[in-house]
Amino acid sequence: MKAIWNGQVIAESNGTVVVENNHYFPRDSVKAEFLKESNTHSTCPWKGLASYFTLDVDGRQNTDAAWYYPEPKDAAKNIKDYVAFWKGVQITN
To answer: Does CATH place domain 2-92 in 2.170.150.40?
Structure first.
């Protein structure tokens, strides 16, 4: 699977985990140079506290377009160290 935004491959992996129709990519398959830490957080009742990244690709930013669970609850421990995308990021084979 690939995550693509602004014409760049942001992440690529054959080992994504699908949760609630979102592909979570292993953190080491995500190109760190495109990620900027965000102060945004949200809470999922069964996954826990999510943190976000803003994508920064070729001078364009996509605010909070990636999220992850640094310390997921036990029910979601399979997505620890995984990153998911939204806000126009294309997920393709």
So the answer is: yes
